[in-house]
Design goal:
The protein is of the alpha/beta class. The chain is built from twelve helices and eight strands. The longest helix has 16 residues, at 176-191. Residues 254-260 and 262-266 have low confidence and may be disordered.
Length: 266
């Protein structure tokens, strides 16, 4: 481990112990009627010395040095993407169910996201994943199309949701091959009885195309950036008014300016 990583790990361990991490929430809405269906919880760490630290830096350190279970338990008090390492514990589904009971949250309102790149490990953890489904907890395969899972593995694993990676969504208006890939993924998801969710939607053209292709749920900066908890209710009320405008041809030019402003604020 480098000296910089060691210092980062020490700072992260202190932040975790002191409850200095926080969660922001990105809305996911139905493409049928624009209704809010769920929110995705994203962990954030603002270090006093370093400023905002990307999860891509501190999560691998937590996995490697035995802090991932502590981070996962903290995150599950709301909801959070989980690590394959946590799934190695056979009692992990019981712990999640217990936390749901403590917070009086129905288990069917919780969905755990697992990245596609780790599905090789997930096949070995079938018992743990199946226990989640028995308890009513949903399982989403994240970043689909960028990892190494086979169709056989997708059929075997008890997922409930398939998330289309943003790299396919971004080229939808201009690339026929991306459109074909996304259409195929959506049809595959529906054929397997899974919900199809598109990530990274940032323009009206992308939104309309993904809707025309039959996708079920969408999230991205056009819908909303990750929000602080206190901003969700106000956003929801405002979005109910915005939704018809997003689908109206008359508002296309107006919203293109809004999209540009939203992207510049990220």
């Amino acid at each position: 481990m480098t000296a910089a990583d060691r210092k980062l790990l020490e700072s992260f361990e202190r932040a975790l112990a002191r409850q200095e991490l926080r969660l922001v929430y990105q809305p996911k809405v139905s493409l049928r009627d624009g209704r809010l269906t769920r929110v995705e919880a994203l962990v954030r760490w603002d270090d006093p010395e370093r400023g905002p630290v990307s999860p891509s830096r501190f999560v691998p350190l937590a996995e490697k040095h035995g802090l991932i279970d502590q981070l996962t338990k903290w995150g599950l008090k709301t909801t959070l993407n989980i690590s394959a390492i946590s799934l190695q514990r056979l009692d992990f589904p019981d712990m999640v169910e217990r936390l749901c009971r403590e917070m009086e949250v129905p288990t069917d309102r919780l969905v755990l996201e697992l990245t596609e790149g780790a599905t090789q490990q997930f096949v070995k953890l079938m018992d743990t994943l199946t226990r989640f489904r028995i308890k009513g907890i949903g399982l989403a395969i994240d970043d689909f199309g960028t990892g190494y899972s086979s169709l056989l593995q997708l059929r075997q694993l008890p997922f409930t949701e398939l998330k289309i990676d943003r790299c396919f969504v971004v080229d939808l208006p201009s690339a026929h091959d991306s459109r074909l890939i996304v259409k195929t993924i959506i049809e595959l998801a529906h054929g397997l009885g899974l919900v199809a969710t598109a990530e990274g939607v940032e323009t009206i053209e992308q939104l309309r195309l993904i809707r025309e292709l039959g996708c079920d749920v969408v999230q991205g900066f056009l819908i909303a950036p990750p929000l602080e908890p206190g901003d969700l209710i106000g956003w929801n009320e405002d979005f109910k008014r915005r939704w018809p405008e997003l689908l109206s041809d008359e508002s296309l030019e107006l919203w293109s300016d809004v999209e540009a402003n939203a992207l510049s604020e990220r």
